[in-house]
Specification:
The protein is α+β, with helices and mostly antiparallel strands. The protein has five helices and nine strands; from the N terminus they run βββαββαββαααββ. The strands form three sheets. It has a five-stranded antiparallel β-sheet with strand order 1-3-2-4-5. The chain has a two-stranded antiparallel ribbon with strand order 6-7. It is globular and about 45 Å long. InterPro entries: ChaC, GGCT-like, GGCT-like_sf.
Length: 242
């Protein structure tokens, strides 16, 4: 691909677990950011990272005019990938969809539109803002079908530290610090095996290639809680119709 061009395929922007756990086929990828939103752990989750009795917390996007949110954009290959994301994010997570502009980190490619999944206060699992110490306590104490809620936070922070070291997300890194502190207080090891589920059997560990337009090298590994992630005006649309 010419680095100045973007394909005509649909792209999706990942700012949470999609950064380190994809589960779908994709082509090109780009590190970069979107504008007008900040990442907050204000969305509840009673399936992947929690239960009905003890919902976990996962990331969503909050409108904030001057904010930027960094993450990873993926070029989707075929309708199967879109159906998978629709089920994962909309059906199970209750996320809505929107289209916004993505700005590639490499500064060479022209900004292009991306699909974004976002939960709002209208979501039935919405938890909203809370003191980060309380959020950390909730995260540390919850787990769901995909594993520990703590893992979600720790892997995401590690992804940014490895791949976007120039980016400082105060909300994320403060939460990471508080989660690790609480894990230590409760004698919870970061090497503790997470529950083995189909979703956790094959976690993609991303490594970003030296060339920004090269495909990601995907290394499939047996997963555990030993976290490591690298990258080379009408009715609102609740879910995509695919």
């Amino acid at each position: 691909m010419n680095p100045n061009e973007c394909s005509t395929n649909l792209w999706v922007f990942g700012y949470g677990s999609l950064c380190w756990l994809q589960g779908f086929d994709y082509g090109n990828h780009q590190l970069g950011f979107i504008r007008g939103f900040s990442r907050k752990f204000w969305q509840g989750n009673n399936s992947h990272r929690g239960t009905n009795d003890k919902p976990g917390r996962v990331a969503t996007l909050i409108k904030e005019d001057e904010a930027t949110t960094w993450g990873l954009a993926f070029e989707l290959l075929g309708e199967t990938a879109l159906r998978y994301l629709n089920d994962r994010e909309c059906t199970k997570g209750g996320y809505e969809t929107l289209i916004t502009t993505f700005f590639p980190r490499n500064g060479v490619m022209t900004p292009f539109p991306v699909l974004v999944f976002r939960a709002t206060e209208h979501n039935p699992q919405w938890l909203g803002p809370a003191p980060l110490a309380d959020v950390a306590a909730q995260v540390t104490d919850c787990k769901g079908e995909a594993g520990h809620n703590s893992e979600y936070v720790l892997r995401l922070a590690e992804f940014f530290r490895d791949n976007l070291p120039e980016v400082h997300d105060e909300h994320l890194f403060t939460l990471e610090h508080l989660v690790l502190k609480r894990m230590k207080e409760k004698n919870i090891s970061s090497t503790e095996d997470a529950p083995v589920t189909q979703a956790k059997q094959e976690v993609i560990s991303i490594a970003v290639a030296a060339q920004p337009d090269n495909n990601l090298n995907q290394e499939v590994r047996r997963d555990s809680f030993q976290y490591s992630s690298r990258v080379p005006p009408s009715k609102k649309l609740l879910c995509l119709k695919v």
